[in-house]
Each structure stands twice: as structure tokens, then as C-alpha cells.
Design goal:
Helices cover about 40% and strands about 25% of the residues. It is an alpha/beta fold. The protein has one domain: 3-Layer(aba) Sandwich (Rossmann fold), CATH 3.40.50. The strands form two sheets. Strands 6-7-8-3-9-10 form a six-stranded mixed beta sheet, with helices on both faces. Strands 2-1-4-5 form a four-stranded antiparallel beta sheet, with helices on one face.
Length: about 230
């Protein structure tokens, strides 16, 4: 579904990604783990074309993404939940969700997707008229995920969904990710909680200083002594 071959990217003279190769198959969760500064967020930003990159291949469902602006990547079916949530604080919860569907005109399908988001995160229905900026961090994360889902993506990329969130809400968010996967959603997950991410994942990659150093099934990486020592505290 997603194929990245030999991706290089950086900021000015500083190279952050070095010949990164990964793939995501339809219907699976792929987790990308690594230390802070390893290049994980840059990787997602390059895929969504928010940030430029040089790659041998960057395709989604066989379509070359290199020449597409970010809004066209969304239109093709790739949605990105950014690190730090980036909701619109002065818009209501309902308006934030509607912004996720700004490129769509299929009114009945939009209403169905909105109902689905409310099913995943009932608090967003309860807080529909509340300003986004007044929500807690966990509620804002739910809103950011809901907004991404409103674009009707086939690939959902999530960047650090548990960062800075109370444990009870982290559990709710991970339950929603699991439910989305059971419904057929394909997910590329960047997550600081390596243990939780790999338990969810069909497959995973370890990114260290801009290079993929390990890959395998989620179970294989959980059992790998190198992963345990570096990321699982075991």
C-alpha cells in the first residue's frame, strides 16, 4: 500500500534520514519506534509531503507522492495525525471535525463518518460546541484523530498519540486504534511507548539516528534483546 525506498531528508545542511526503506501493507498496523531525534516525525512529514525528501520511490497504492502537495496526498487517502495534535483551538469541536472533511462533498458519507468518530470518542459528541482549545490534552488528541478520520483515509499515520496524556485516556486511544484496525484501517504508528506500540503492531521498524536498524513482526521486536535494552526497560 505504502512503499518507501531509499528516503533521505534533512533540515538545511543537517541530514536526518539516511536511505530509509519501509513498506506498509493493506489492513495492518506498522509501528515505527526509536529515540527522540531519530527522525520518526520527519519520516511521517515526508510521506505526507509537508517536508521535502529525496527517495528512490515514494508511492501510495502505486501513485508517486513526490510531486503532490500535502492536500493532494490527503485527497489520495493518506491522513496524518501530527505530533502535538495541532487542533484549531478557536474552533469548536464540531468545527474541527468538519475541517477534516473540507475536501469532501458527499454529505451522507460525511454524516456517517462523524457518527463513527462519535462512537469511537463519545466525549467529542458531548463537547461538540466547546472550543477545541479548552479540551484536555487527551481530549485534544481524540479530536486530532477524529479530524483525520473525517477525511475518509485508507492510510492513517499517527505521530506520538500517547504523548503527554493521562494513562486512562491513553488506554482509550489505544483501544480506538485497535478498533480501527479491526474495521480494516491501515495504520502507520509512531509511538514513544514502544511496548504498547509493538503489542498492537503486525510489523515494526526501529529507527536510530535516521537509519532503519531492525525490522520484524511486533512479537519478534518485543522479544529482541536489543529492543528490550534500548526501549522497553528490560
Amino acid at each position: 500500500m505504502l512503499n518507501v525506498q531509499g528516503m533521505n531528508a534533512g533540515y538545511g545542511p543537517v541530514e536526518v534520514l539516511h536511505e530509509v526503506t519501509l513498506e506498509v501493507h493493506r489492513g495492518e498496523i506498522v509501528s515505527l519506534i526509536g529515540a527522540n531525534g531519530a527522525g520518526k516525525s520527519t519520516m511521517l512529514r515526508c510521506i505526507s509531503r509537508i517536508h521535502g525528501s529525496r527517495s528512490q520511490s515514494l508511492t501510495f497504492e502505486g501513485i508517486d507522492l513526490h510531486s503532490l502537495p500535502p492536500h493532494e496526498v490527503v485527497a489520495r487517502g493518506v491522513s496524518h495525525v501530527p505530533e502535538g495534535r495541532r487542533i484549531f483551538p478557536r474552533l469548536t469541536v464540531r468545527e474541527n471535525l468538519e475541517m477534516g472533511a473540507y475536501r469532501r462533498n458527499d454529505v451522507a458519507a460525511i454524516a456517517k463518518d462523524l457518527a463513527h468518530v462519535h462512537e469511537l470518542f463519545p466525549i467529542l459528541h458531548t463537547r461538540a460546541k466547546q472550543m477545541g482549545g479548552t479540551l484536555s490534552g487527551g481530549e485534544q488528541q481524540m479530536l486530532a484523530i477524529g479530524r483525520a478520520l473525517m477525511s475518509s483515509p485508507r492510510l492513517l499515520m499517527m505521530d506520538e498519540p500517547s504523548m503527554g496524556i493521562a494513562p486512562i485516556l491513553v488506554a482509550r486511544i489505544f483501544a480506538a486504534i485497535k478498533q480501527l484496525r479491526s474495521e480494516g484501517m491501515t495504520i502507520l504508528l509512531v509511538e514513544q511507548n514502544a511496548n504498547a506500540a509493538l503489542k498492537l503492531a503486525d510489523r515494526g521498524y526501529v529507527l536510530e539516528t535516521g537509519r532503519i536498524t531492525l525490522s520484524g513482526t511486533g512479537a519478534q521486536l518485543l522479544a529482541d534483546k536489543r529492543v528490550q535494552d534500548a526501549y522497553l526497560g528490560e
